[in-house]
Amino acid sequence: MSEQKTPEKSRNASAKILGAARTIAAREGAGKVTIDAVAKESGLSKGGVLYNYPTKKALLSGLLDQMLIEHRELVGKVSEQSPSQTLHGHLMTVFRSGNLNEDLSMAILAASASDPRLLDPLRDEMTSHLEHILTETSDPAGAMIAVLAIQGMRFQKLLDLPNGGAALREPIIERLRKIIDELD
Fold first, then answer.
1. 3-state secondary structure of 96
2. Per-residue pLDDT tens for 82-123?
3. Which of 39, 45, 105, 170 has its CA at a distance of 20 to 30 angstroms from the CA of residue 176?
């Protein structure tokens, strides 16, 4: 006798569904993340996936939320005594994200082209972080230059743009750390 799925079980399947979507994105690329593929990968019915995420856009929004949580966790690992804690956290997240997050980021950016509101949670998060960054220093212009450099590095990595080569990676990171450390 097969076990009947209850709404509570379907609701608790969210982590499994997001995990399946990330697995597909890593293995096959973000373009292959579909409701049907996620259902198959997660071992859930299509209805179970749709119960949690009624559209692909909702699924991508769930993935963005998950990525923001991971970002917050990484930023939170920076010592509270660290000057410019939030800025150091952002620098750390650029280099700790893997190809999977880049693939998912690209999928989220692509989906946001049809609905820019999909990025509203990211905008809100970044606005909050920017406010923290600018209040953690007496040199807001210097802090903003570091923010823009980090964001540029994030998009350079995301879009696979030329980066000057592996030999420059560590010196660039160290230079940014030094610049951030020198902010009051």
1. helix
2. 667 788 888 877 766 555 456 567 667 766 776 788 888 888
3. 105
Q: How far is CA 133 from CA 70, 74, 120, 179, in A?
A: 19, 16, 20, 14
Q: How many residues does the chain have?
A: 184
Task: Give the C-alpha separation, 150 to 163, whole Å.
Answer: 13
How far is it, in rounded angstroms, from Cα 33 to Cα 101? 14
pTM equals: 0.72
**CB proximity list for 177: less than 8 A, separation 6 or greater:** 88, 91
Q: Distance between CA atoms of 77 and 80, rounded to whole angstroms? A: 9
Question: For residue 120, which amino acid is it?
Answer: D
Contact partners, residue 26, CB within 8 Å, separation at least 6: 99, 100, 103
